[in-house]
Amino acid sequence: MNLDFSQVVPYIPFILEGIWVTLGFVIVAIIIGFFIGALVALVKISHVKFLRQLADLYTSIFRGTPLILQLMIVYYGIPQLLEYDISPFLAAILTFGLNSSAYVSEIVRAGIQAVDKGQLEAAQALGIPYRQTMVKIILPQAMKNILPALMNEFITLTKESAIVSVINYLDLMRRARVVGADLYSPLEPLIIVGVIYYMMVMVLTMLGKLLERRLRKSD
Fold it and tell me: Which of 40, 73, 90, 187 has its CA 20 to 30 A from that of 31?
C-alpha cells in the first residue's frame, strides 16, 4: 500500500485550524484546573478533617478513573440528569478542568509543603491571618517550585486532548478523522496530525525547560 499525501493538501488549512481549537480548550481547562486545584490543595492542608477527607475523595475519583469515562459521563450525563444540552466545548473544558484540578491539587500541596515551615510559624507569631499568610507569603514562593510541574501538566493535557474527538468536538484528531472519511484513506491525515501533536509537545517541552532554567538562575 502506497501513501499519497497529495490528496490531503487541500485539507491542510482545515486541519491546521484544529491547533487553535485544541489549544483553546486546553488553556481554559488548565486555568480552571489551577484555581480549583489550588483551592483543593489548601483544603488538604487545612485542620478540618472532614474537609480534608472530601478533598482526598475528590482527588481519588478523578485520578482513579479514565479521563475518557469522565468525559462521556459529563457529555451524556448532564443532558440526562439536568436536562441541559451541553456543548462539546463546554463538556471538554469542564471535564479536563476538573480532571486537571485533581493533579494540580497535589502539585500545589507539595509546593506549599516545600516552603520552609518557619515562615508560616513566623507569620503566626506576628499575628498575620492564615489566609493572608497563604496568599501573600506562602503561595508566591510555592509557585516558583511548582511552575515546571504545571507546565508538564499542560503538556499532558495537550496530548490527552485527542480524546474529545469521541464527542465530535472539532479538535485536531476529529478533523483528521473527518478528512480520512472524506478521502476514504484515514492513514495520511492521522500521520499529519500525529506530526502536529509531536511538534506542539516539543515546543511546549522546550518552553518548560526554558522556564525551569530561568527559575534556577533566579534562585
Answer: 73
